[in-house]
Amino acid sequence: MDKAFRIIYQAIDKANPEVVLRQETLLSGEITKPSNCLDFSISHEEQINLIQNAVDNILVEKADLINKDARDCPDCHTHLTKLGKHLSTFNDIFTDHEVKMQRLRCSGCGYEAPSTVRTFLNGNTLSGQLAKLQAELGAKHTFRDCEDILTSFATRPRRITNHNRVKLTTEDIGNALDAVNKATNDLVKIEEALELVLNVDGGHIKTKDKEHRSFEAMTSVLYRPEDIISNPAKTRNHLRSKACAASTLDDGQQEMIATTIVAAITEGMTENTNITALCDGASNCWKVVDALTPLCKKMTSILDWFHLSMKMENISLPADLKGKFLRIRWHLWRGNSSSALTRLNELSEQLKPGKALNKIKKFRTYIENNVTKIVNYRERQTQGLVFTSNLAESTVESLINQRCKGQQHMKWTREGLNPILQLRAQINSRDWENKWKMAVLLAL
Questions:
Q1: Which structural domain range is residue 348 located in?
Q2: Residue 206 within any structural domain of the chain
Q3: What's the rounded mean pLDDT across residues 145-168?
């Protein structure tokens, strides 16, 4: 017996599901024996067509409800008159739809009830889910790549998903996140954290400003020590949960501080929380740490060993002096900064003027500026305490470098990059799923 299939949409009575109010066939076809992976299911185009027809029917029912109960003008209370229906566009995740909405007009004052998708959705025609998808993709990929990705999934180009629309949606939702963070700050309910780790870092981005080569984007990552997941293979560990913040604004770190405080509260910071802060030694990073100090029980500030050791690896010396430089590393690893500075002074006297001497002098200044933040790293490692930001470095890489520095030809402005970093920070945090709806509604 040959078989065929028919997928049907039914609008039913909610009180009596057996009563079918309207019915329409969405997709039909023959059922044939599959021969390979290409014909085992229905095609991509048929699946999109199925979604198209299903949503078309649902929108018919929903559009009829919008002005169903509108009888009198809300301004002058004159009875509203029907003036036919408006046909307008609605853009969903993979499909575009023509929606008919009843037009109602007041003969007294001229008031019209919302009768197009754009007026009903306050100037927009796209669904919240499509806006979320565009923002997430726009935060991770170039806008032209986003257009290609969305075109591939929809099987056709769409005006609503061209690279410019993706850019606008990404920027709008990214900018809205700042307001959402402020609005939800007092609503965050999470178990109090007794210990938190804070990493503050930055990266330089090529700028469109002809007077400057780059500007700095700052990021911070907060997590609980118990959320570190060790890898049995002894490769890099990872974090089960974290909260991130970011900013590119040249505002004296005001936004960076505000968003970092929200991230800390999201991770459970209270006046009973001890925080261990690791930074690369830059004053603007310590400024963010200092802003959180009055809000917690105790702040332990540590010059990050990852950055400290990287600076040492970037110093090239003559072969006969490398052994002395290794002794400096030995002293720093044990927190003996005074001995390290003494040996740096001795090393400087043995070097001839040039690049090596200049690097040694800069490194000595770096140690002097952060001498109070240098600890016994060896002891902390033995005790299983955090002493390096290598866990957070992967987050910095994902927040800044992958999107903003991977394409070397790309140049940015502070205002253009900031909403993207806000999105990337939230997407990498534990509370993105709790905030995206508010951000979309506020942006649209």
A1: 305-384
A2: no
A3: 95
